[in-house]
Structure formats: C-alpha cells, structure tokens
C-alpha cells in the first residue's frame, strides 16, 4: 500500500501577499506584512515597487502593525542600498528589529546604528555633513532627535550587553570608548573573571585611548578612569598605572606610587619603581619629572621622621632620584654607545686626505660627519689627531667645530667643563668669540634635557658669575650666568642661548615666572639678528609643550614687529615648539600664523601643526598640510608642509607613501 507524502510548500513569488496588501481590510494587510517580512530578503526586487505603500502603513498611527510595516520597509530599503533611511525605519520598528540575528540586514544596520550613535555622542566636537543628512531623514519621518537618540542608545546598549555576555570584552571596550560611555566601559572591564584578564583589558583600554581618541581632553578622562580602576585592584599593575599618571601629568599620585613601592618589603616592587622612574625620564618633560623628584624627596623627609630605612630601601630611593635627575640614564647611554661604537675612523681620514684644504664647506661637512658618526660615544680621537687641520676653521666654521664636541660628548656630563675649558673665557681659556659661543652651545648639547645636573668645575676654574665661590652650579645656572655676562657679544650670546635652551628644555610650565625665559626674552628685545634668532628658538625649547598663551602672544607680537628675518624664523620655530603635543589647544595660534602675510610665520605654522599633532595621524592636521602644500605662494612654506607630514605620521609609516604620492609628482621642485 502506497503512502502519500506531502512536500513542503516553496514560495516562488510575493505576488499574493502584495495583492492582500492592497486590500482595505486591516487584518489582511497585517497578514500580508507578516508574509512579506519572511520573503523580503529573497523577493525584495518584486516587493520594492510597493515600498511606498508599506511606508504609508508604517506612518499611520491607527494601523495596529505599524512597527511590522516599518521593519519590512527597512529591509526593502536596505536591499535598495539606502542605509540611512533603512536605519530610520528599523528604529521605528523598535523591539521587532532584532540585533541578535545573524542576517546581513541585522549585522549591517547594527554596525550602522553604532556609527550613528558615536557621531551623535561626539556631535558637539565633531559636526559632519552626515549628521545633517541623517537628521533630515529623521525629521521627514516625524522622528525627532531625542527619540532617535534614545532608539540608537537602546540598540547600542543591547549590543554591549551581548558582547559582555559572550565574553567579547575588547569589542565592548572599543565601542564604549568611542561612544563616551564611561559606565559601560567600567562594566566591560569589571566583567572579566580574573585579575590577569582585567589588567589585560585595562592595558587594551590604554592602547585604545592612544589610537582611537582624537580629543586630548576626552583622552585624559579615559586615562583617569583607567588609573582609578588600576588602583582598585588588590594587586595592580604599577607600571601600567604609572603610564596613565604620566600622561595625566599627575605628579602627586606618581610620587605616592613610587614611595609606596620603595617602602614595600617585596623586592619586585622596588624593581618596578626603578622601571617606572626610567619610563618617566624617557617619556616625560623635565618640568614633570622635576616635580616628581621634589614630591618624592618631600615624602622621604616625612617618612624619615617616623622610621629609619634599611640600606636596601635607601639604595632604591637614591637610584630613583638619580634616574629622574638624568644622571643614571646618561651614564648608561654613554657606556653603551662608547662600548658598541662601530664607527670607522679610516673613512674619515680617507675623506680628509682627498679634500681641498681651502674649501670651508667641505671642512665643515667632515666635522659634522665625524660628530654624527661618534655622537654620544665620547670618542674624539679624530679631532685630537688632526689639530692642525681643525685650526683651519674660521668664523662660524669655528663655532660649528667647537659645538661638535657637544655632539660627540653628549651626556658626558662629568667631564664637560674639563673638555670645554680651553674654549671658555671663564675657565681660563683664551679663545675667540666663535669658539666660546660654540663651547657654550656644546655644553647645552652635553646637558640637553638635563640642565638641573651639577657641573663638576675644575679646581682652577673661575665661576661663570665671577663670584669667586667654588660652589657647584647646575648647567642651566652656568649658561644663564654666561648669557647675562656676554650682553655685548652677539656670537657668544647666540651660543649661550642655544645651549641654555637645550639644557633647560621643557623646564618651564608656562604658569609661574621663569628666570631663564625672562633672560632669553631680554636678549630677544635687544633686536640683534644673530642673538635674537637663537633667543627665539631657545624660548620655544624652554617652554616646549606647555602651550603658554603668554609666551605665544609675546613671541607672535615681536615677530610681527621686527624687521629681522632671522629673528622671525627663530620665533616661528619657537612658537611651534611651544605647541608640542597640544593638539586642538594649539588651533588658535596655528590659524593666526597660517593667515599671516609674512611667509616665515606661515612656515612656522606648518611646524606648529607638526608639533601639535606629532605622531597622531590626525586627519584634520593632514588635510591642512596637504592643502597648504598645493595652495601657498611661498616655496619654503610648501616644502615645510610636505616635510611636516612626516612628523604627523611618524607612527604610521605605511600611510606616508600613499599620502605624499601626488605631491611627489608636483610641478614644484620644492614640494618634490
């Protein structure tokens, strides 16, 4: 006996459902929409001519299945490629729009939802053309902004809940950071089961704050949250916590952290404190780690009143102070470079033997070659073996020859005055103004970023201030005294300003009065082209990264008033250095300099962009530089704009060839 088997019905068309959609009865229209909802992904070309009818039903308040109509309309519009309108109708569908479905429709609109929500959350800082377009669609649908925002937030909250439930912590961290949802960011990190997972999540959050967050202020908020969560851990990652505090420039808490680690009985904690000290010295400005040292020493005195430290803690404490002051890093770097130098002096001798002794250009070039080859190694045998040849240098070539000693002996601070005493009048040396100016510049190169270190003066030396006292002074104090003493010699002033700027680099916070900055300003106001150029640059070095409005206003005003191009150039670069790392905070001065009629100030504006957005790959900065590279009338400004792309993109080298490809084919040789 045969048994009849019923085959499942395979829908081959949406025609019957579309006919029911045209019926006046509401129950038939609702039935048609349920069928069309199941067929939309397959038969959307057939359904699309009726999308207007479906949209009308979705907007009727009296229609009981308006949400279902919105969902069907969203699916058809999605397949037609209108994602903005599809999203608007999907949001009107409310709970019927399931974000957990694995369909292309759900995943695409879910991502679109997140993007739209992030744009709207960042709208006060980032107005875009897409905002207006999306808002226009919402208005057309009678979907006001607040309701749209609530609907988007509901979807994003569901997405984050799903990510946390499925253990996708990194995905939820990325969305929470971009959408500025601090509560969900904290929840995502706390959802990690173990301490190691939470620390890994916090470290990933730190990386995201550096790569995803464009706003400097918001980045600080995220880092503050990360630091707070690190502190809540029973066994926190002290190095990661210190990184956050360094970026926040929170010297007080960093000093407390170092003090706690030093006082710990655990040897690994004391080693962590030493590593933190190295990180702070390598990555932060002198004004910051000077504050840390001062606070650390004050806490040492407080602790010393209550207890007597053992030798191990005292040793660790002294090591941290020496690291932050720069003496240990300088010594280690000098030892490494001198012990592992691969420079071949035979190459230098060969080049020297083929040179025309009358060519000052070739003479200076070989001096610079030797300085770069032996930079930081303290190996000056080539100069000592060729003293007669070295004596051929005259005028500014002699200045350069002497300053090259600072490059070769960089960080060789213990013997700085012994090496330079033959060229310094205060140390009993008989030299020309060019040699003395070069020696002061060399001293700054030796103590670059470490002007607070003490100078070890030779026994027979005369103090720079002429006081007759043999009390040790810092490199910055010595150079400051030299600058004050040589008020009538612009060549020596030039070297003293450059050396002082290097030694005191980043030492001024831009708030309190600073003797070094004020003395450099006095040198600038004497309106000497040679000394003023160096003074302007040194003012920028001293105030590097502080963004001081006072300093920027003074430098800009004087640059607009003076007639010396050298001074304008020095001040332009000084203003650029002051903007270092300031990002959006530097926009006002950048715009002012960019709109100047003086090409040297526009030239400085390009470097201000480079310094303000250094390493950030910021799109706004890149667009400005590219625009200037093709529109400015000055060859120097165009060239500077292209060069500065390298500063902005130095952490993203693979992007550089693509961005400069068109500039490489420019008709302007300076741009090429």
TrEMBL record:
InterPro entries recorded? 26S_Psome_Rpn2, ARM-like, ARM-type_fold, Proteasome/cyclosome_rpt, PSMD1_RPN2_N
Cross-referenced SUPFAM superfamilies: ARM repeat
GO molecular function per UniProt: enzyme regulator activity
**What keywords sit in the KW lines?**
Proteasome, Repeat
Question: What is a biological process (GO) this protein takes part in?
Answer: regulation of protein catabolic process
Gene3D superfamilies referenced in this protein's UniProt entry, alphabetically: Leucine-rich Repeat Variant
Q: Which GO terms describe its cellular component?
A: nucleus; proteasome regulatory particle, base subcomplex; proteasome storage granule
List, for all copies, the residue spans of the domain called 26S proteasome non-ATPase regulatory subunit 1/RPN2 N-terminal: 13-339
- Tell me one Pfam family matched here: RPN2_N
PANTHER family associated with the record: 26S PROTEASOME NON-ATPASE REGULATORY SUBUNIT, 26S PROTEASOME NON-ATPASE REGULATORY SUBUNIT 1
Q: Which family does it belong to?
A: Belongs to the proteasome subunit S1 family.
Protein name in UniProt: 26S proteasome non-ATPase regulatory subunit 1/RPN2 N-terminal domain-containing protein
Source organism per UniProt: Rhodosorus marinus
Q: What is the lineage of its organism?
A: Eukaryota, Rhodophyta, Stylonematophyceae, Stylonematales, Stylonemataceae
């Amino acid at each position: 006996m045969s048994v009849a088997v019923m085959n499942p019905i395979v829908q081959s068309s949406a025609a019957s459902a579309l006919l029911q959609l045209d019926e006046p009865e509401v129950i038939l229209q609702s039935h048609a929409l349920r069928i069309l909802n199941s067929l939309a992904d397959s038969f959307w070309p057939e359904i699309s001519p009726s999308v207007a009818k479906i949209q009308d039903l979705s907007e009727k308040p009296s229609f009981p299945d308006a949400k279902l109509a919105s969902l069907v309309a969203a699916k058809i519009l999605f397949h037609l490629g209108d994602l903005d309108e599809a999203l608007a109708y999907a949001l009107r569908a409310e709970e019927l729009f399931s974000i957990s479905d694995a369909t292309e429709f759900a995943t695409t609109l879910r991502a679109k939802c997140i993007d739209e929500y992030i744009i709207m959350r960042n709208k006060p800082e980032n107005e875009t053309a897409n905002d207006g377009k999306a808002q226009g669609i919402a208005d057309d649908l009678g979907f006001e902004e607040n309701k749209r925002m609530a609907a988007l937030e509901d979807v994003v909250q569901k997405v984050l809940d799903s990510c946390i439930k499925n253990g996708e912590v990194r995905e939820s961290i990325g969305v929470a950071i971009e959408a500025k949802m601090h509560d969900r960011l904290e929840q995502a990190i706390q959802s990690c089961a173990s301490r190691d997972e939470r620390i890994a999540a916090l470290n990933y959050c730190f990386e995201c704050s550096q790569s995803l967050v464009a706003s400097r202020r918001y980045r600080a908020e995220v880092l503050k949250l990360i630091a707070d969560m690190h502190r809540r851990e029973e066994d926190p990652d002290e190095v990661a916590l210190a990184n956050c505090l360094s970026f926040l420039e929170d010297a007080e808490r960093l000093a407390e952290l170092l003090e706690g680690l030093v006082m710990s009985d655990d040897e690994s904690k004391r080693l962590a404190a030493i590593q933190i000290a190295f990180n702070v010295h390598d990555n932060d400005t002198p004004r910051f780690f000077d504050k840390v040292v001062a606070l650390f020493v004050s806490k040492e005195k407080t602790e010393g009143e209550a207890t007597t430290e053992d030798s191990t803690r005292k040793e660790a404490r002294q090591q941290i102070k020496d690291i932050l002051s720069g003496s240990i890093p300088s010594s280690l770097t000098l030892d490494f470079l001198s012990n592992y130098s691969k420079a071949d002096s035979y190459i230098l001798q060969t080049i020297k033997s083929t040179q025309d002794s009358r060519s000052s250009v070739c003479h200076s070039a070989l001096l610079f070659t030797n300085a770069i080859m032996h930079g930081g190694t303290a190996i000056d045998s080539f100069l000592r073996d060729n003293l007669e040849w070295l004596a051929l240098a005259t005028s500014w070539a002699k200045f350069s020859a002497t300053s090259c000693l600072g490059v070769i002996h960089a960080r060789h601070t213990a013997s700085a005055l012994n090496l330079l005493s033959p060229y310094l009048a205060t140390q009993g040396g008989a030299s020309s103004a060019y040699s003395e100016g070069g020696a002061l510049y060399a001293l700054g190169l030796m103590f670059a970023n470490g002007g607070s270190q003490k100078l070890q003066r030779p026994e027979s030396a005369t103090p720079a201030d002429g006081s007759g006292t043999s009390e040790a002074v810092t490199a910055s104090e010595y150079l400051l005294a030299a600058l004050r003493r040589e008020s009538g010699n612009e060549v020596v002033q030039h070297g003293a300003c450059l050396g002082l700027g290097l030694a005191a680099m980043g030492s001024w916070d831009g708030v309190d009065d600073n003797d070094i900055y004020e003395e450099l300003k006095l040198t600038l106001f004497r309106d000497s082209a040679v000394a003023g150029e160096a003074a302007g640059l040194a003012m920028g070095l001293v105030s590097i990264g502080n963004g001081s409005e006072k300093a920027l206003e003074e430098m800009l005003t004087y640059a607009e008033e003076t007639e010396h191009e050298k001074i304008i150039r020095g001040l332009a670069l000084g203003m650029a250095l002051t903007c270092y790392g300031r990002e959006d905070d530097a926009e006002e001065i950048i715009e002012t300099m960019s709109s100047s009629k003086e090409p040297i100030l526009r030239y400085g504006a390009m470097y201000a962009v480079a310094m303000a957005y250094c390493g950030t790959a910021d799109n706004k900065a890149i667009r400005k530089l590219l625009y200037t590279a093709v529109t400015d009338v000055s060859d120097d400004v165009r060239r500077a704009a292209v060069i500065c792309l390298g500063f902005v993109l130095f952490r993203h080298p693979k992007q550089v060839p693509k961005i400069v490809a068109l500039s490489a084919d420019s008709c302007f040789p300076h741009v090429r």
